[in-house]
Amino acid sequence: MGTGAWTVEKRSSFRTEPFSKENTTAPETGCLSIVVLGASGDLAKKKTFPALFHLYREGFLIPDEVHIFGYARTKISDEELRNRLRGYLIPSKGASSEQLDEVTKFLQLIKYVSGSYDSPEGFQLLDKEIFEHESSKNTREGSSRRLFYFALPPSVYPSVCRMIKNYCMNKSDLGGWTRIVVEKPFGKDLGSSEQLSTQIGQLFEESQIFRIDHYLGKELVQNLLVLRFANRFFLPLWNRDNIDNVQIVFREDFGTEGRGGYFDEYGIIRDIIQNHLLQVLCLVAMEKPVSLRPEHIRDEKVKVLQSVLPIKDEEVVVGQYEGYRDDPTVPDNSKTPTFATVILRIHNERWEGVPFILKAGKALNSRKADIRVQFKDVPGDIFKCQKQGRNEFVIRLQPSEAMYMKLTVKQPGLEMSTVQSELDLSYGQRYQDVKIPEAYERLILDTIRGDQQHFVRRDELKAAWEIFTPLLHKIDNGEFEPIQYKPGSRGPAEADELLQRAGYVQTHGYIWIPPTLS
Ligand code: BG6
User: Fold this and answer.
1) Which single residue of 27, 42, 417, 434 has CA 20 to 30 Å from 486?
2) pTM to 2 decimal places
């Protein structure tokens, strides 16, 4: 097993430069009000508040400056919200009294405001509460910072945006900035997404809108640019001359569990592939940006998306796991895919002819997400080792974050024979003292700092929908019958056949096992 064969000797830290006008003038200190809209919902409890708590614990949210407001329709008191959240902030294996203390102090920063999402009263009250908080901190002119996190269904985005714009935008003359963080699904297809973008765009500048895709906050996704553009190794290899195919795979070993109602409306392509996996594809395939400015990076991502050719029907396999329709919130005749393999082809000089295989599925045999770059065979195989497998560079996004390079070496010993092995950078082993931050934690911090690098720009979103909308419409019209697969399996066998047709060669008899800590 690998022993962390790569070492890192030198470190340099970089931050992307702000680009937009708003960002260059925006204050980074001063009173910060974070409003979690949809505070009693699942996303808020499971992701948003825990991420805020971690930022608080790490010292990024300073009690003297910050106040958190939960907003939702349910009529509950501050204390009731705090009690509901408490369980999500305490580690499942139990907490020390210090940790419990920290949780209590954090919860004291949270105030609850109840109101509807489409009438002024609630938002006027919210504005009043925020203003009181700002006044109590003697906020200087120009330094009020208001962050609105939408942990809400997109159907209410337009009305909530209107309410914020009309009633919560710093009429107090304190100035500063207002930003909104919105979650997917941003529409269901190109038309609905563009409509939503237009509605929000009429109220907020692009520099105020942070479209979150939490995959962009994952450590190894964030590492992709560094890896590709700060290492000489990869520069000459990363192209159609050397790479045979690229797979970006997401698997979960559980079904839709309690989210059947939401999921059935969207399906796996909208839930995972059109956003999370496509964002990863952009970072794997894009050209080197002019600089690390968010706009430069996003310009390159858009170019990749615009170079994707229309998806061919014969390069798609969709599936649905047996038992999916037993969920009472899923219609009995649902044809929503819970699994899909889709091949994208990028029509440019670097990637012509290289299939990018995007695969995602629920209720499969394992839970993991990785990028697998498979290289072409070595020409003139004097070792006759081709059948053992091809070189692969694998980036394991989760769990057990790692990068490993699968390669052929001499079998140690007297004989001259070959074997598959790996150069292995396993994070758990290599960075034992480092706690890898949660994606949401990192991204919320970016929104506070005004760094849009890891957020989806409007034209990027549009280009992503352009790729998938024709296919999604065909699926919605019943033109694709999802193939049934057994829960706990690899998914439909037809997907493996498609992979083979695309040129992927599976290595048999080699399994990478993440190293265990000694
Ligand atoms: C969400 C999807 O965006 O991502 C879920 O809606 C999915 O269906 C989740 O389970 C996966 O996120 P992660 O970070 O656990 O891979």
Assistant:
1) 42
2) 0.93
